Amino acid sequence: QVQLVESGGGLVQAGGSLRLSCAASGRTGTMYRMGWFRQAPGKERDVVATIHWSGGSTFYADSVKGRFTISRDIAKNTVSLQMNSLKPEDTAVYYCSAALRPASYDYWGQGTQVTVSS
Predict the structure, then answer these.
(1) pLDDT given at position 28
(2) Do 52 and 72 form a contact (C-beta atoms < 8 A)?
(3) Contact 85, 11 (CB under 8 A)
(4) pLDDT tens across 89-111, in order?
(5) Which residues, other chains included, contact 31 with Cβ-Cβ below 8 Å and sequence gap of 6+?
């Protein structure tokens, strides 16, 4: 089991920045990959960015490339998402997730709201 707690959401104007953080506990030594996903009202949950826990390789959705940066701190068991140049279409509930094996995001945080005003 892995427990995840997100923080850092809020309201920001377009063009602004926010930083999300996710603290993991439990079986963190077995984590394969961590990621950030988001779900806007009436839409499906989509991947935003992921990072390989030990190697650090990253993946970004096309919509956030060049604006968002995912990072992790293995010693602190945290993963962060730095979001710059935010757009109204980035408005969503953002979820942190952990996978203990490839393509299997089985653990989720409670979500944090990000609202970008125009």
Answers:
(1) 87
(2) no
(3) no
(4) 999 999 999 999 998 999 999 99
(5) 2, 24, 53, 98, 99, 100
pLDDT tens, 18-53? 999 999 999 888 899 999 999 999 999 999 999 999
Question: How far is Cα 117 from Cα 95, in angstroms, rounded to an integer?
Answer: 20
CB-CB contact of 8 with 94 (8 Å)? no
**Strand 78-83 relative to strand 105-108, pairing:** unpaired
Burial class, 16, CB count within 10 angstroms (exposed 0-12 / middle 13-18 / buried 19+): middle
Answer whether 96's CB lies under 8 Å from 75's CB. Answer: no
